[in-house]
Design brief:
The structure is a homodimer. By secondary structure, chain A is mainly alpha-helical. Helices cover about 55% and strands about 5% of the residues of chain A. Chain A contains 16 helices and five strands. Chain A has a three-stranded antiparallel β-sheet. In chain A, helix 8 (about 175-185) packs antiparallel against helix 13 and helix 13 packs parallel to helix 15. Chain A is globular and about 70 Å long. Chain A starts with 17 loop residues before the first strand and ends in a 16-residue tail after the last strand. At the A-B interface, strand 1, strand 2, strand 4, helix 1 and helix 4 of A face strand 1, strand 2, strand 4, helix 1 and helix 4 of B. Strand 5 (about 365) of chain A pairs parallel with strand 1 (about 20) of chain B.
Chain lengths: ~375, ~375
């Protein structure tokens, strides 16, 4: 309870404060390990699919064949978005950033779900699955809106393939599918980051899964959370060529400018996700005529590690994901919605996990203002 | 940083943990005082207007005449919602709870604001003012949708009057305006509650003010936060008459059922907001033919205080606000959107205050799961 002026110290931004327990995943920054339910990210990125990883995050084990079939059938039972929503997305993307369109789209889907006022666990699970099933089409529709093109509808059940097919209106190659699927797996969960925490705060009032994921997207939209790969790519394109890397980076560091795509709050060694994506980015860039972009990135990495590697500053996942998405043909404004296309797994899994032993999030604020009681002075007498 | 199994204790729901400083308001639960910027709530409820109180929460002092005029001019510069949005709200209210429609409406307004990707303080302030200016029309339009009636457009600049006029298609009486204005003032801010905290978590990523308020609404939708007055009224209507109060309440208490509208996490004495609303509820109920409802409430209060008053259980604001809104003619499904119509002041003021000394909210989760590394087994080999 707050009873006036206090001088106690507190952890700003709740830094270091434990807010929840989880069995879903952890980031071991010292050893450069990212773990989902006990599996190293390298193992899953190499062999698994995005649907399997989502199942793993949500239910705790890799699915049997029967479980997998049931899960994907539920995801695909009602995976279409309607023309009405597509029109609204077109309007929104004309006016503002596609993350606003995505936030509105998710909220709208929640408004149209007749079960969205049910709060029991099976209903919450069903809502999350329905939303996730529609997500590839929703993000692809935003991509089409950005391009000023009509919506594409695919009958493809695979999450990755459906998204790529509906984004570009043609079947992706096997290699494109593999690269993009890997990127989705790598971004599915990453500790209790700000958007994940936002989804948990919302679900803790027993609100619905659409509301939780709307809050997550509203939070991912902020430049302190999402958007780093968009900025990292813009910086690489500004540098333009490997030969400019040393000069421009040195100049930026002298001016104390932040080099996007480097350093991480948790990883003090090479980000395991960046290591995986780098290999794919190289091959993909070669195949799609973006070799100079990749070579510029490699040179920027070399310069940065030379200068700051001893301080634990290495490329993070955002440094290479931008090159991957650009090489696949995506508009950089779609990079953060693509992040959401993957992270919905983590948001859903962690909100759903939290509901099993729910407690309303309600920290305190420390009052440092006027205690009064002040006397009200009528408007005409105020100076 | 999280490095595997830990056994440390932590505060579930962040209970008691300080997450931020504020100069906006505080709840003194021991003495039954609610303070906005040093003013007791009774003083403001008696003499102020909702616009003045919003200015006070946002900027720290009551406005001079010139400041007040500038503030209300900014609120009303672009206060209309368009037919396109009204159609979407009609669709949403047909399918689900009006809080989903409100969440979608706010997100949509954000998508249509060309400045919603600017993160500087003046842009955030301008977005908050634009959204707040549209809020009476937005909530009134949801009310019209619920009633299956067309939208009403008023040129009235006053927040309270405009909302009532656009909700019912006729000018409110002076007394109706006074009562509703008071209810808005009483609900404008109440410590760092769950929806307010959600808005702060979202804004802390430097996301935009629409995103912050979308998260707040997504969180207020949950029955552990919003909706208590809707349930309290339903319970009173079920009791039906003062003579049934003792029996039904005793029976409910025996079955350990929660009596909505009683008790408060912070107030251990009579909720100062309930005290104010009770007087208005009495007079309004008499005037509008809801006397038996009010008398039932009074009897329920008497029974409850007899049984539980010594334990610090008293009526809270939700107990009497439902009677006020019902007497004014509102559908109970609109009660939580009305809460938002008022609380937007607190959400906006506290998110805006937080931005002045921003720090990303990023607490830790404690990993209690499998550490592995587990070996990936291909789908066909799983049992």
């Amino acid at each position: 309870m707050i009873t006036g002026n206090q001088n106690t110290d507190y952890a700003r931004g709740l830094e270091g404060v434990v807010a929840a327990e989880t069995r879903i995943g952890f980031v071991d920054g010292i050893n450069g390990r990212l773990v989902y339910r006990g599996y190293n990210i390298e193992e899953l990125a190499e062999s698994s699919t995005f649907e399997e990883v989502s199942y793993l995050l949500l239910y705790g084990t890799l699915p049997t064949k029967a479980e997998f079939e049931k899960f994907t059938a539920r995801l695909n039972a009602d995976n279409r978005i309607d023309d009405h929503l597509f029109k609204a997305l077109q309007e929104c993307t004309k006016a503002s950033h596609p993350m606003s369109a995505l936030r509105t789209g998710v909220s709208y889907l929640g408004s149209m779900d007749k079960d969205s006022n049910k709060y029991d666990l099976p209903s919450q699970e069903a809502m999350g699955l329905r939303l996730m099933g529609k997500f590839p089409s929703l993000v692809a529709a935003i991509n089409r809106s950005l391009q000023g093109k009509p919506m594409v509808r695919s009958n493809e059940p695979n999450y990755t393939v459906r998204f790529l097919e509906e984004s570009f209106g043609k079947k992706p190659t096997e290699f494109e599918t593999k690269v993009f699927r890997t990127a989705l797996i790598l971004h599915a969960d990453h500790g209790m980051n700000a958007s994940t925490f936002a989804s948990m705060v919302t679900i803790s009032t027993l609100s619905d899964m659409y509301s939780a994921i709307t809050s997550a997207i509203a939070s991912l939209k902020g430049p302190l959370h999402g958007g780093a790969n968009e900025q990292a790519l813009a910086n690489l394109e500004r540098i333009g060529s490997p030969k400019n890397a040393d000069n421009i980076i040195s100049e930026m560091l002298e001016k104390k400018e932040k080099i996007m795509g480097f350093g991480h709050r948790v990883y003090k060694v090479y980000d395991p996700r960046a290591k995986i994506l780098k290999e794919y980015a190289k091959k993909l860039a070669e195949e799609t005529g973006h070799s100079e972009l990749f070579e510029t990135a490699e040179e920027v990495e070399r310069v940065m590690i030379n200068k700051l590697g001893t301080k634990g500053i290495f490329p993070n996942v955002d440094f290479y994901s931008g090159i991957v998405y650009k090489s696949l043909g995506f508009d950089p404004r779609l990079f953060t919605p693509i992040f959401a296309l993957s992270r919905i797994s983590g948001w859903f899994a962690r909100s759903f996990e939290y509901l099993h032993d729910n407690r309303l999030f309600r920290p305190r604020s420390m009052y440092k203002g006027e205690v009064g009681p002040l006397k009200y002075v009528p408007l005409q007498d105020r100076k």
